[in-house]
TrEMBL record:
Organism for this UniProt entry: Shewanella vaxholmensis
GO terms, molecular function: tRNA (guanine(46)-N7)-methyltransferase activity
Pfam (any one): Methyltransf_4
Superkingdom to which the source organism belongs: Bacteria
The name this protein goes by in its record: tRNA (guanine-N(7)-)-methyltransferase
Amino acid sequence: MSEVTTAEFNEEGKYLRKIRSFVLREGRLTKGQAQAIESQWPTMGLNYSPAPLNLSDVFGREADTVLEIGFGMGASLVQMAKDAPEQNFIGIEVHKPGVGSCLSDAAIASVTNLRVYHHDAMEVLEHAIADGSLARVQLFFPDPWHKKRHHKRRIVQAEFAELIRRKLKIGGVFHMATDWEEYSEHMLEVMQAAPGYQNQSSDGTVVPRPDHRPLTKFEARGHRLGHGVWDLMFERIA
């Protein structure tokens, strides 16, 4: 799991904007991770600026862009980028070893359609991503904050859903996944109430894992132990 942001929300789910809403989690880099950042950042790294990115300039082409919030160590994001060379991918992660690992894997896989932020997801989304520019936003296995008194810290809240909707194109999809069933129910409740979205589930609940989301080692182990994973996909319709 990846701690995508330390931003907090109040009881009504409103994002509490603070002067400094996050702390970059440096962690201890392995030699390989440090080398990957040094060698790959000039081509794959995105330095945060409050001005919206020009995606065609960043990637050198016009293509659908997928953004992942909190990619952890980056293995599945690199796999997705490798499997879909016709799409652009942007990953955001505050944990520096994860950034290094992602860049290392991307270099080994010769992936050229991936760019990475080492920054707070909320700031990037609010300021660096133009409205209506994304084909898909991915949020996989965010911190479930499973204690009831911590539910307000969950990233999937009403205001966050509206922020994601603004960044998606019409027809773009917000794809969430969690291994906590109660959090999936919370996500479903928030998203069903969020204006401008349509659930892609045929029965109005969750969807089967789509082919574009790789099965992680963590998830495969969970399946063997009888643990579930719940995917939700909501399309922007307005």
